[in-house]
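Annex B. Sample input.
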Amino acid sequence: MAYAPIRWVAAPLAAFALCSCTAAPEHDTSRQGTSQAARAPEGPCALKWHDNTDNIGVPTPSGKWTHSTGTVNALTLFIDFPDIQDTEGVQARHDQFFPATAEYFKTASYGRLDYRPEPVMKYLRMPKPFSAYRLERGASYEARLALVKDAVAAADPEVDFSTYTKGDLINIIVTPKAGKGLDLAATHNLAEPIETDEGPSPIMHIVDVWDNDSSLILNHENGHTMGLPDLYPYAGDTTKFPAGHWDIMSDATSDPTDMLAWHKWKLGWIDNSQVDCAAQQHTTTERTLTPLAITGGTKMAVIPTSDSTGFIVEARTKDGLDRTQCAEGVLVYWVDTTKAGGDNPVTVYAGNQPDSCGQAKGSNWRALANAPYQVGQTYKDPRTRTTIAVTGRNDDGSHTVKVTRG
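Annex B, continued. Sample output.
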């Protein structure tokens, strides 16, 4: 068996406010994962999807990823090792991630994704000591696969894998005593199914979380199973995130944040009717954008410059999942779908320099803490002769923008 490339994230610094919740009900064979029919992004503003591991282009190929609308069943396994045994109890570990993860996806998707964690509420002991798996940052696919197969085998007596679908996923949550400081959180897209008592498991997407104690990390890794790329850099200056803290796929290590409108469109959480496509050149048009924190209305304007590149404009307010942001206003960013995850497919433009709030934020996204443009400010791109002017703001946080295409 083989994996698609593994994605790495740093250990989190802060978390959502979490609360205790009860164990999931008995496994029900009638609750197969489903995906609500959502019209795929289309038209000249649907920047082209390119065939690499995870791509920001649209539409996302169907059948390749977990469900992003309808129901996704997240089988959740807690594991420890003979040489590193858990002492805190499974309920405490469970409550670090749930129900916060499900609530995040419900809010971010405007209710279109029903994320259902289905935990096996006990620690499953691996057959080999932690040291025997030879896991470290950059561990081989074979080492990762060995642990995943052992976790599935340990859960097999407790789980009827035939009741799941290819659109579901597995979360493997490891005792936090193992892998400390190794940044081992990862997503695995299996090339071949794992055998179970019921036959080959249909679940092809598996996430593992190690010494992390934040649902932010789980949100990020689960985003990969839906086809979303990393927005932080793998190489070059890795201390600066070109997408800042404006998407969970960029920074999952500090305060909560919503997803970019572009990602919401990609996942089927925003309809084509909520996308204002400014594809015609040599025109000036004005439109009103409602903030991402509220349901309904036009969520973004797209100004394509080729079939794979373009400017995106959206309104962000300090509400909902963006409640801890330093600034609100109109976010302007560049999308390049020829770039894979880790190669900076999104660049957010800074409308303002960070103030005291921004200076207090993490160094990797501090420069973009005050990125949103305010009323009276204009973004100009001389290369494409594109200007985006913020001309007004309403009480509900919606903003009026004037777009001129050269």
